[in-house]
Design a protein that fits this description.
The protein is α/β, with parallel strands linked by helices. The protein is built from 12 helices and 8 strands.
Length: 338
């Protein structure tokens, strides 16, 4: 009898091992980032998105930062996330990339609005970060995805905070990378960096590419020497896909018009990982520390030398802290499903 039981469990073990190996290979095959970009209409907003991986896997929504397009999530990072057993969804926020642009927005005096922001006065914006969180939630509704994990970077992390507040029962985990609470008194970036960030008008394609390469270099880590040719290539790919400087300015206004999110963070009860670099020139490290301090039960991981870009040298350190966290919550999801 004991021998029969042993044989049975050995067969079960072999079957499960073979199944897992097969699923792993299948996941690797299905994790190509070369998938068509689709579009979904959400009222007045049309979002462009990609859906990578198997629809039966837990979903991970990636939310990009200011002016960033879905292609600014590095393909190799997206593939690694998918290979961990996630269906990865990345999209262009409104006003950038292949999503629709707000053509009927009023004229923007960014210098004037930035001055009002520094003086603590109200800032006018055509839409807010919470509206953009509503876009992301609408995308998941349109895809028929009820529960999902969220990973947001920079402005995308701010949008993700609102998303978790809007639908806490649907967000299974929250990963916030190089982002902020928007509270007054936190360290500010240098005026020179802000000027580069706001400088989007250009008389020609060549000038626009040089400006973007300058910005990418300024957002990089002092520990890494950037190759200028590579920066120009990255700028070229993004420019040729879509170039909408007015849209980026409107997104920046949405950030400036946003009050402190401390009260919002204090009421969040979603499992949260906060990741920040010690060399971030745009949102210095205390921004990440402050976010983590106001989300009950959150984890904080600081990455030495990481700045405000997904530079090659820091992709593995980032994945080393993000993947174990996501896997823990993915496994919890799978156990609940069983």
């Amino acid at each position: 009898m004991g021998f029969c039981v042993l044989v049975f469990f050995m067969r079960v073990f072999i079957f499960i091992a073979a199944l897992l190996c097969g699923l792993s290979a299948f996941a690797a095959d299905s994790c190509t980032t070369e998938v068509p970009t689709a579009k979904v209409v959400l009222g007045d907003v049309q979002l462009a998105y990609q859906r990578i991986g198997r629809e039966s896997d837990p979903s991970l929504l990636l939310v990009m930062g200011l002016g960033g397009q879905l292609i600014h999530w590095p393909d190799e990072v997206v593939a690694r996330l998918c290979e961990q057993g996630f269906q990865v969804i990345r999209f262009d926020n409104r006003d950038v990339g292949l999503s629709n642009w707000t053509h009927e927005a009023p004229a923007i005096n960014l210098t004037y609005e930035a001055l009002r922001y520094r003086l603590g006065l109200s800032v006018s914006a055509p839409y807010g970060l919470r509206d953009m969180a509503g876009d992301a939630l609408g995308l998941m509704d349109a895809l028929g995805i009820q529960q999902f994990h969220v990973l947001g970077a920079s402005m995308g992390g701010m949008i993700a905070q609102h998303l978790a507040d809007l639908a806490p029962e649907r967000v299974q985990s929250l990963t916030l990378v190089m982002t902020s609470s928007g509270a007054q008194g936190l360290p500010a970036p240098s005026p020179a960096l802000l000027a580069l960030l706001a400088k989007r008008e250009a008389p020609s394609r060549e000038v626009a590419l040089e400006q973007q390469a300058d910005l990418l270099a300024a957002l990089g880590s002092p520990q890494v020497r950037d190759d200028r040719g590579l920066l120009l290539h990255q700028a070229q790919v993004a420019y040729d896909r879509a170039f909408n400087p007015e849209g980026v300015q409107r997104q920046l206004l949405a950030i400036l018009a946003e009050p402190s999110r401390v009260e919002l963070l204090n009421r969040l009860r979603v499992p949260t990982l906060v990741v920040h670099g010690t060399a971030d020139p745009l949102l210095p490290v205390m921004h990440g520390v402050h976010v983590a301090a106001h989300i009950r039960g959150s984890e904080l991981k600081l990455i030495p030398g990481l700045a405000h870009r997904f530079q090659d040298a820091f992709k593995e350190p980032l994945l080393a802290v993000v993947l174990p966290y996501l896997n823990t919550h993915r496994e919890g999801h799978m156990q609940a499903a069983l």
